[in-house]
TrEMBL record:
Subcellular location field: Membrane
Keywords: Disulfide bond, Membrane, Transmembrane, Transmembrane helix
Lineage: Eukaryota, Metazoa, Chordata, Cephalochordata, Leptocardii
Protein name, entry field: Tetraspanin
PANTHER family: TETRASPANIN (PTHR19282:SF544)
Organism: Branchiostoma belcheri
Family designation: Belongs to the tetraspanin (TM4SF) family.
Length: 244
């Protein structure tokens, strides 16, 4: 009998520690979201990236505010969970469970919305690139030019929806015809022979897959937290020593 009680106490302590550690990780995640939101609001390169896809500054800042608010909510929920686990407080654990359930439902709703709207999103991005393609490279702000140079070098492309968009072509359009793929040779110079529109959209699709994976992992983590909080509450009820 004593052995069973000892095992029960040990499992209870393990769940308590696991839930506490879970909330520390959750807290770090919330602080990261807040940091990213602040970075998006103050970092000019982020603003330039959204300008390239014809996204206005209000949309950019709205997204940053959503990240900050989401991060703050995550921090508050993690603190609730940590305090509830440490104090073995059933009411706080119940509030923590409810908050996680709401967050999980919101995440599922966002995921469903993305699946339904993703095709339209990429069409919008493509249309924005087509609109920007009417502007010559030399007419863009220096910061946008730097962003375009980075895109063209990394994605091995030239121009937006046509390799003839920019005249004269910037140096970031040049490539080594002997070593690089997707090169073409014109006169004494070699340029990337494909525009950047499709590579940009493909790159965004790849990143969305990564984001989806992170979202699924985040959802599983929340399910784990909900399960641990339920188990901890059940253990407290069985011991008959409820902390209020």
């Amino acid at each position: 009998m004593g052995c069973c009680k000892s095992c029960a106490d040990c499992s209870f302590k393990c769940m308590k520690i696991a839930l506490f550690v879970f909330n520390l990780i959750f807290l770090l995640l919330g602080l990261t979201l807040v940091g990213v939101g602040i970075w998006v609001m103050v970092e000019s390169n982020a603003s330039n990236a959204f300008t390239l896809t014809d996204t206005d500054s209000m949309t950019l800042y709205a997204g940053a505010i959503v990240l900050i608010v989401g991060g703050v909510i995550t921090v508050i929920v993690s603190v609730l969970g940590a305090v509830g686990a440490w104090k073995e407080h059933q009411i706080i654990l119940g509030v923590f469970f409810t908050c996680l359930l709401i967050l999980l439902c919101l995440e599922v709703a966002i995921g469903v919305y993305y699946v339904v709207q993703k095709d339209q999103f990429y069409v919008t991005v493509g249309d924005a690139i087509d609109t920007l393609s009417t502007t010559n490279y030399s007419d863009f702000d220096p910061a946008i030019q730097t962003l375009l140079d980075t895109i063209q070098k990394n994605l091995q492309c030239c121009g937006l929806n046509s390799t003839k968009n920019f005249n004269p072509k910037p140096s970031s359009c040049s490539c080594d015809v002997d070593t690089d793929d997707n090169c073409c040779e014109l006169d004494a110079m070699s340029w990337w022979d494909r525009p950047c529109k499709r590579p940009i959209i493909l790159w965004m699709q790849e990143q969305s897959g990564i984001i989806a994976g992170v979202g699924i992992g985040f959802g599983l983590v929340m399910v784990f937290g909900m399960t641990m909080s339920c188990c901890l509450c059940q253990k407290k009820r069985k011991t008959g020593n409820n902390a209020i």
